[in-house]
Amino acid sequence: MKRLDYLYDNSMEIKFDEGTNIVFISDVHRGDGTFYDSMLPNINIYKTALSYYYRREFIYVEVGDGDELWKNRNYDNISYCYNDIFKLFNKFKEENRIYMIYGNHDIIKNRESFYHIQYRALRKIGTDYGKNFLDFIKDIEFYEGINFKFTPVNEKFLVTHGHQVDLINSDYWLLSRFLVRYVWKFLNGLAGFKDPISPAKNNKKGSKVDRKLEKWSEINGKMLICGHTHNSRMPAKFDPPYFNDGCCILPYAMTAIEIESGSISLVKWSVESQESGVLWIRRKVIVGPNSIKDYLLFARDKRIRIIEESKKQKIKPKK
């Protein structure tokens, strides 16, 4: 919980208003193009969604676990299989419309040597191998958290992956990575075992993490957007303002959170079929659109009450 406090107080701040469109997408888990690549079945859905957001001038915010770097040791295959995605990322980058947050599965992006290590590794394969990927990660910053301030009410909310409240996937992430890479990856492929340390594959664990994140939002009176658990959620107007954008590896579907014209929505992209048998990719609003101002003002009022109650407790006379 303290790490979330720190991120809220110290993370970079981006200001926006009703004229700004933003999409939050997490847990893409871009992989190596093999059976172990959870994202591969949804690559066309994801690419369609990205193209839609690019055309409509959205800011793209990746809320952690964009690349699967627990199952995979490097970008040899990721940069090749998702070349078109990184090419599209570069178009966002050229227009300063993309921000990247790292999660537990791609936490190595926070290292200063990240670009140079990938550059040397991919150059050993070929001069132009992984060019779009390398062009993208060059001179781009990967954040643990970002604050977004809605200027009409001068209130902000924190966006971070959410693994910070999940001990085994934060403090002990090296152990978790070892188990995923060398144990659960193969047990899952051979016998269908689920990874017990992943909140995405363990419903009880995922719900527990969601409750912790929701509790932080409630007891602090602060709005929060996360990923990590793969459980998409958007609160009712007077519930603790904890949002989760879900993931991109649902069965032939992905979810995202959109902010457009001062309203926030939870959306789902999925493959659907017509009676003629033609398959198409559909964007559907699941919840919303709701006024983001209402959520932020509710959080502010809650925060003020918490502060006032704390002051009363301090001045309460001792018996």
From TrEMBL:
<dbReference type="InterPro" id="IPR029052">
    <property type="entry name" value="Metallo-depent_PP-like"/>
</dbReference>
<keyword id="KW-0997">Cell inner membrane</keyword>
<dbReference type="InterPro" id="IPR004843">
    <property type="entry name" value="Calcineurin-like_PHP"/>
</dbReference>
<keyword id="KW-1003">Cell membrane</keyword>
<dbReference type="Pfam" id="PF00149">
    <property type="entry name" value="Metallophos"/>
</dbReference>
<dbReference type="GO" id="GO:0008758">
    <property type="term" value="F:UDP-2,3-diacylglucosamine hydrolase activity"/>
</dbReference>
<feature type="domain" description="Calcineurin-like phosphoesterase">
    <location>
        <begin position="21"/>
        <end position="231"/>
    </location>
</feature>
<dbReference type="GO" id="GO:0016020">
    <property type="term" value="C:membrane"/>
</dbReference>
<keyword id="KW-0464">Manganese</keyword>
<keyword id="KW-0479">Metal-binding</keyword>
<dbReference type="InterPro" id="IPR043461">
    <property type="entry name" value="LpxH-like"/>
</dbReference>
<keyword id="KW-0472">Membrane</keyword>
<protein>
    <recommendedName>
        <fullName>Calcineurin-like phosphoesterase domain-containing protein</fullName>
    </recommendedName>
</protein>
<dbReference type="GO" id="GO:0046872">
    <property type="term" value="F:metal ion binding"/>
</dbReference>
<dbReference type="GO" id="GO:0009245">
    <property type="term" value="P:lipid A biosynthetic process"/>
</dbReference>
